[in-house]
Specification:
This protein is mainly alpha-helical and 113 residues long. The protein contains five helices and two strands. It has one domain: Multidrug-efflux Transporter Regulator, Chain: A, Domain 2. The chain binds a DNA duplex (9 and 8 nucleotides) through α3. Keywords: DNA-binding, Repressor, Transcription, Transcription regulation. InterPro entries: DNA-bd_dom_put_sf (IPR009061), MerR-type_HTH_dom (IPR000551), MerR_fam (IPR047057).
DNA sequence: GTTCTCACA
DNA sequence: TGTGAGAA
């Protein structure tokens, strides 16, 4: 999705957050789907910019919705010429901002004064 | 298929 | 910043 392939493609929007938050896939599938090689994913994790959730017995890395999203975002920023560190920082900031917004919304709607 | 580490670009 | 290769 480089630039302006805007109109005719109909996209599916997943709005079942409950299900979305439970999507956890292995590194192989993440690599295949996102186009980021497993080697690079491990490298990023080693750098601390993403983290995998580990099941007790298995040794294979598995990634949840948030981290898969990070992988995609970081990759886009890298393609735009950012360094890995700055890309990671921008991703963290964006996620934090979004979290803050929904935190405020949640507080306002769940605890109306 | 996955893991790690060392070395190299 | 990322890969290759070998070994487990």
């Amino acid at each position: 999705m480089s630039s302006e392939e805007s109109s005719n493609e109909q996209k599916y929007v997943i709005y079942d957050m409950e299900l979305l938050s439970k999507l956890i896939v292995g590194i192989g599938e993440v690599a295949e789907i996102t186009g980021v090689p497993t080697r690079k994913i491990r490298y990023w994790e080693e750098k601390g910019i993403i983290k995998s959730v580990q099941e007790a017995d298995g040794s294979t890395r598995r990634y949840d919705y948030v981290n898969i999203k990070k992988i995609v975002l970081v990759q886009e920023l890298l393609e735009d010429g950012y360094t890995l560190d700055t890309a990671a920082k921008k991703v963290e900031d964006r996620i934090k901002n979004i979290d803050d917004v929904f935190q405020k919304i949640a507080l306002q709607t769940l605890e109306p004064s």
